[in-house]
Amino acid sequence: xWDKYKxxxxxxxxxxxxxxxxxxxxxxxxxxxxxMIGQLGRTELASASFTNTLFSIIIFLGMGFSFALTPLxxxxxxSKNIKQINSWFKNGLITxxxxxxxxxxxxxxxxxxxxxxxxxxxxxxxxxxYMITLLLSIFPMMIFFNFKQFAEGIGNTKIAMNIMLxxxxxxxxxxxxxxxxxxxxxxxxxxxxxxxTLISRIVMAGAFIVVFYRHSLFAPFKKALSxxxxxxxxxxxxxxLGIPMGGQMIMEAFAFGxxxxxxxxxxxxxxxxxxxxxxxxTIGFMIYQGLGSGTMIRVSHYxxxxxxxxxxxxxxxxxxxxxxxxxxxxxLFIGARNILPQIFTADVEVINLAAQMxxxxxxxxxxxxxxxxxxxxxRGLADANIPSFFTFVSYFLVAIPFSYASAFIWGYGEIxxxxxxxxxxxxxxxxxxxxxFYLTRRKENLVLATLEIK
Length: 454
Known about the structure:
The chain is mainly α. The protein has 2 domains: 1-16 and 244-454, no CATH class; 39-230, no CATH class. It has helices spanning 2-38, 42-66, 69-78, 82-113, 121-136, 138-153, 158-180, 190-214, 224-227, 232-266, 268-304, 308-335, 348-380, 385-409, 413-417, 420-453. α5 packs parallel to α8 (190-214), α7 runs antiparallel to α8 and α10 (232-266) packs parallel to α14 (385-409). Residues 447-454 have low confidence and may be disordered.
């Protein structure tokens, strides 16, 4: 088994680790952002929370939408069709730019509606000012995502990682300068945090454009923007694939966010414990996501080579690595359940409740890992509509109702809200795997039929 999969393990990890590092860097800079905003005061922290809750929906939609480019480019990269890669790149840039404009328009409408969302009057003005600066960062963010997903499609995840890590440092420095009025800059408070984010995202887009024109990896694709034709068919194909991918990310984020809202219905203690537990589980989630991205890239390459064997081995190797990591994370969450919450608080009640949540978290690690890896494989196969429907079923028809019933009908209280996670993730993993099995079996039957004709 080791001889069969060792090359696959190496290739999957080579692609996945830079994605994991970049995502963990994003978590770190988000934590630093909150710490710095917290220095401004309670009102600014509440305003940032309100704005980021609305803004994150747009981020997830844009990020998920841009994912569509990777399997389309990856398929052509696997078949070594440079002309088609160039065409997907140019039309992807147009499509993601148009999506960026759409997201900016959507956020503009949301900004006008913010005073009518029932928030305290004291947070409205700083929230709107903060949102305006974040709104301006959407377009460069989508440009960066286009280059990032294109680079991942041709098998390079390190460039995006390096640029994201540099931009994280730029963000922190920008926050410090504009929030607190350093180096001759005006003291802008919460708006300064938005300016720091805007500058960092402009740097992200600009840096990738420079790398694209200077790095030898992209030499075969430099003339694409001037020589390739605009293809309405390709723009439609990217949009058709991108919308359900973005929808998947929004549904997942909303489901977990709604559980936080339900926790507020239960108690303040539950809210505090939930925040600790969800922060700890997010780290594990990012590692699974990185492995899912690596699996998606490899599957898309084998799809271009028309190698069903390669598709299966890439998916299986991702599952093997995920299984090894899930054993480690399960052991950590159970064994250190009373220790990890102490990083965040000294409140004994909060620690005890968070420890119970971490036990539940340990039980759904395997299901979470399976559904992410198989979802990555399905993305690599450019399959999005059916998995998007499965996401809706798993979270909205199963997980959220089960959480509500466990907490408020069956009497399990705060911990009951977490019971919906393993149930919903189990359903998602099962449905995704059935879809993957169906698609691979269909491809297998097509190969057999071809051989019989020959």
